[in-house]
Design a protein that fits this description.
With 946 residues, this protein is an alpha+beta fold. Among the domains are: 147 residues, PAS domain (Beta-Lactamase, 2-Layer Sandwich); 95 residues, Beta-Lactamase; 42 residues; 102 residues, PAS domain (Beta-Lactamase), CATH 3.30.450; 157 residues, Heat Shock Protein 90 (2-Layer Sandwich); 116 residues, Response regulator (Rossmann fold), CATH 3.40.50.2300. The protein is built from 23 helices and 28 strands. Strands 8-7-6-11-10-9 form a 6-stranded antiparallel β-sheet, with helices on both faces. A hairpin with a 5-residue loop joins strand 22 and strand 23. Helix 2 runs antiparallel to helix 8 and helix 3 runs antiparallel to helix 4. The longest helix has 67 residues. It is extended, with a radius of gyration of 48 Å. This is histidine kinase. It is a multi-pass membrane protein.
């Protein structure tokens, strides 16, 4: 009973409004908490379940894709393997049949006019140079009695009986061929070798195809090794596999059981990488998992951490592996697990839409609850209306009389508190008026402190106020501004525009924004951004216009800078496009000459003069192409900041004489004999030897002279040097077409040329002068040009004059190109894995009598030098398949320090020669190897060797 009484007393002390408010809020909070908790739990579980299902579907689908890609790749490999023997035989038969047809045609055309010996010579001369299958294949001829007639690679063994010749497995090769021809006129002979895993089994080693040539009792034939044929096929297959792409970034990789990476990240390696020597522990660990699959199931999935292409972060990757055990290959591809996140994000959008739909339903439900509560409250309020009527009557009286409400006649606490609130409200209203005045003063201070122009107008476009910045700009006080309009302060044209803006705002109720340059009293011009909007009263009716004008001059300046930068970028893009088109032309022009005249050399009945002319054109095209490549490499070095100069003593007069002979020959070759080449120089006070970079100095002079020859049709070309104080002044002056003023501004820039004649008509890439200027600056000087159209041009540059008097320059004596040297008593070891380059070395040195021994990798070169002490010199290629040439040289020098080793490399980069010296090489030549340089270097060692 006491508890009930206490609760009643509590209700009596609390107002009805409090009780109603507490009840409504409590009910609403409980409903929201319950519904929100239930919905959150439900949606969380559903989202988690859907995410797992999506992840599983994605992983399974991706696993199916990568398994299918690997299966197709292995199927492609096995299909090509199955056809390798048949393709090799078909190729042999086709080549021999073609050779037989050539021999038959020669015989039929000449048998009535020439003797048998003459016809035999014609047939052998026609078939001897035939090569195919990457220079492996050739045509041989034997008589049906077993005597050799044509052995293209072993001419010294021709006309020798060969019935007793045996190959390395003991097969009587020629005897078997003769026996076959006794039964048929043509056919195949196959030779087998014991299998690696099972000696009782045998595998195809090589095949020969022969065909009888009845007129002379000959037979023609050719042979090929299956291993060599499959090596070519492997390269083609790797090229095909490296180009396979699927999905967004899917690719294949191929490794060998021996640890070589053949294809990585979808790119075929020119030289396979050794994974186990890569120093990448993660790669080695992944490779070991691949080996385990190879040695067990032969195919399957593996999971590991790997770096995505162009990323430094490790990610989980799942790959499927397959194997080609006949070749020892591991073929695979995979995908990264985090690719699912983008897929889940897409599905998450759909689920979020579903969540939003659920929220809408919840909100609608709560709204219905609130409506119900409002109806209940409405019913209660009506019951209370009778009590409020008394209170309302008193309010009506207080509206007419300013009296304080008497609380003695009020019954409920709510009414008494409301009466106190009314009395307090009256007091607060007075305080509010005072606060309004204070806030208005503060607002005014803020407006006046703004540097922007702020002003106010009525609906008739008359000023009703402004801030201090606008008043200072107009030059009057704000009180003088009020009631006046734009026509009182601005020119009529400007005032009309401002008035039109005002009318447009009032009619459309849409803000107006404009930009305008104005002049301040100090004479400065600024760009102002003005925004005008309507001002409304509390009822939404327009009462005036508010305008703010801001200085955006700096923004405009930035915009103009952006436009200029954009134009510059567009110009750079245009130059790049023009350069690529120009480069395509410059590369194809010499290549057309090389390929065209090379094809002409294969024609019969060429005179020696024709051959010499064709070879001259081929050499000229090769030199042009090499010069173009050098220019591209130099400009790339300049871009990377790697182009350097090396100072050494050099005879300047010798260089000028060499330039004279070179460019006099160039004028003659271009049919410009009428142009005079003149050398002007003076005696240097410190002698002809200076300290400079001879290669780069000669490169600059060559560029300038080549340009002069290119653009001069008559008159003269004068070049030379003179001393000017502490500098050497070099110049090239011509009487050619000259350069326009616009051309002078751009010719020293990359890819730029003087195009006042329209389409470029003299060739060139626009790189030579840019490279020359950079070289001159590295040498400590600068380059300039003076010219006028039609009056020739004068290029000149100055570099510091550094005399060098400690040595006496001696002219380099070139070796006689008539091959008068006799090195028949000497033996050279040529370490070269490229067949084509070795053939060039062999042909180049054949007429010297030099005995040649060839190996194709570093390990064989070491063993050969240690076992064969007849070797007098080693020509070492730096880039070898098993180990680099420098490593091989160090091992050779460790046992035979006295044997000369000459390094040859295509890496024509700064520091490469020093690197070869550090490895122990005695000399260094760069590819492409020129015959004269090769003979000079060899002669410097062989001519002095007893």
């Amino acid at each position: 009973m006491n508890l009930i009484r206490t609760f009643k007393n509590y209700l009596q002390r609390k107002s009805i409004a409090d009780q109603l408010l507490y009840g409504i809020m409590a009910a609403a909070v409980i409903c929201v908490l319950f519904i929100g908790h239930y919905w959150t739990s439900l949606e969380t579980r559903r989202f988690k379940k859907q995410s797992e299902e999506i992840r599983d579907r994605f992983v399974n689908s991706r696993m199916d894709v990568v398994r299918d890609e690997v299966t197709r790749a292995i199927g492609f490999i096995n299909y090509n393997r199955s056809l390798s023997e048949e393709r090799m035989r078909l190729g042999l038969k086709q080549r021999v049949d073609e050779a037989w047809a050539i021999a038959s045609n020669i015989y039929e055309e000449n048998r009535k006019t020439k003797s048998r010996s003459e016809i035999e010579k014609l047939i052998k001369d026609a078939l001897r140079p035939i090569r195919f299958s990457n220079d492996r294949g050739e045509i041989f001829i034997y008589t049906t009695s077993g005597v050799s007639v044509l052995l293209p690679r072993n001419k010294h063994l021709e006309n020798i009986p060969g019935l007793d010749y045996q190959d390395q497995h003991g097969n009587y090769v020629v005897r078997n061929e003769v026996e076959l021809l006794r039964q048929v006129d043509q056919g195949f002979i196959h030779y087998y070798s014991p299998g690696k895993d099972n000696p009782e089994d045998s595998v195809l080693l090589k095949s020969s195809y022969i065909r009888r040539f009845a007129p002379f009792n000959w037979y023609l034939g050719s042979k090929d090794y299956l291993e060599d044929f499959e090596s070519e096929m492997k390269e083609r297959i790797l090229e095909y596999l490296s180009k396979i792409r699927y999905g967004n970034d899917g690719y294949l990789f191929v490794n060998t059981i021996g640890g070589e990476a053949l294809i990585t990240n979808g790119v075929k390696h020119l030289w396979p990488q050794d994974i186990r020597k890569s120093n990448d522990s993660n790669w080695i660990e992944v490779y070991q998992k691949q080996v385990d699959i190879y040695n067990t199931t032969g195919s399957g999935f593996i999971e590991y951490q790997f770096r995505r292409l162009l990323s430094e972060d490790f990610e989980t990757k799942i790959s499927y592996l397959g194997t080609v055990k006949e070749w020892g290959w591991i073929v695979g591809t995979g995908f990264y697990e985090n690719e699912i996140e983008s897929f889940i994000r897409d599905n998450r959008k759909l689920m979020e839409a579903q969540i939003r739909s659920t929220i809408v339903h919840i909100v609608l439900s709560l709204l219905m609850v609130l409506i119900f509560i409002w109806l209940v409250s409405r019913w209660i309020s009506r019951k209370l209306a009778q009590g409020f009527a008394i209170f309302n009557l008193h309010f009506r009286k207080t509206g007419l009389e300013s009296i304080e409400m008497n609380q003695e006649n009020l019954v409920f606490s709510e009414f008494r508190e409301l009466a106190e609130s009314v009395n307090a409200m009256t007091e607060e209203l007075n305080n509010a008026r005072k606060s309004l005045v204070k806030e208005r003063s503060l607002l005014r201070s803020l407006i006046d402190s703004s540097p922007d122009f702020i002003f106010f107008k009525d609906l008739n476009s008359n000023f009703v106020g402004c801030n201090k910045a606008f008043a200072d700009y107009i030059g009057i006080e704000e009180s003088e501004l009020i009631g006046r309009n734009d026509y009182d302060f601005f020119p009529k044209e400007a005032a009309d525009k401002y008035h039109q803006f005002d009318r447009q705002i009032i009619e459309d109720h849409i803000p107006v924004r404009s930009e305008e340059w104005i002049t301040f009293s100090d004479g400065s011009r600024r760009l102002m951004d003005t925004l005008k909007v309507l001002n409304f009263d509390s009822a939404g009716n327009p009462i005036g216009i508010v305008a703010i004008s801001r200085d955006i001059s700096e923004k405009e300046e930035i915009q103009q800078m952006y436009i200029k930068a954009k134009e510059k970028a567009e110009e750079a893009d245009r130059l790049k496009t023009a350069f690529l088109a120009n480069m395509s032309h410059e590369i194809r022009t010499p290549m057309n000459s090389i390929i065209g005249f090379s094809n002409l050399l294969t024609e019969e009945d060429l005179t020696p003069e024709d051959k010499a002319e064709f070879i001259r054109h081929i050499n000229h095209g090769s030199e042009t192409l090499l010069s173009l490549i050098d220019d591209i490499i130099d400009i790339a070095k300049i871009e990377a900041g790697q182009l350097m100069v090396t100072f050494e003593p050099y005879n300047l007069r010798e260089m000028m004489d060499e330039l004279y002979h070179t460019h006099a020959e160039l004028l003659k070759r271009k049919g410009k004999e009428q142009v005079n080449l003149v050398l002007e120089s003076e005696q240097l006070p410190g002698g002809d030897v200076i300290l400079t970079d001879p290669f780069r100095l000669k490169q600059v002079m060559t560029n300038l002279l080549v340009n002069a020859v290119k653009f001069t049709e008559k008159g003269s070309i004068t070049y030379g040097y003179k001393v000017s104080g502490d500098f050497l002044h070099f110049f090239v002056r011509d009487t050619g077409i000259g350069i326009s003023p616009e051309g002078i501004k751009v010719i020293f820039e990359r890819f730029r040329q003087d195009n006042r004649y329209g389409v470029k008509h003299q060739g060139g890439t626009g790189l030579g002068l840019a490279i020359s200027r950079h070289i001159v600056q590295l040498l400590g000087g600068d380059i300039s040009v003076s010219s006028s159209p039609g009056e020739g041009a004068l290029f000149s540059f100055m570099i510091p004059y550094n005399a060098y008097t400690d040595i006496v320059s001696e002219k380099k004596r070139g070796r006689d190109s008539t091959f008068s040297m006799d090195w028949s008593s000497k033996t050279i070891l040529v370490v070269e894995d490229m067949e084509s380059h070795y053939n060039y070395i062999r042909s180049a040195l054949m007429r010297t009598g030099l005995n040649m021994v060839r190996v194709s990798n570093g390990q064989e070169s070491i063993e050969c030098c240690l076992n064969d002490h007849q070797i007098d010199i080693v020509l070492m290629d730096v880039n070898l398949p098993d180990m680099d040439g420098y490593t091989a040289t160090r091992k050779i020098k460790a046992h035979r320090p006295g044997i000369p080793v000459i390094a040859q490399t295509a890496y024509n980069l700064p520091g490469e020669e020093n690197r070869s010296r550090e490895a122990g090489c005695d000399a260094y030549i760069s590819k492409p190897v020129k015959l004269k340089i090769l003979l000079d270097v060899l002669g410097s060692f062989l001519d002095n060797k007893k």
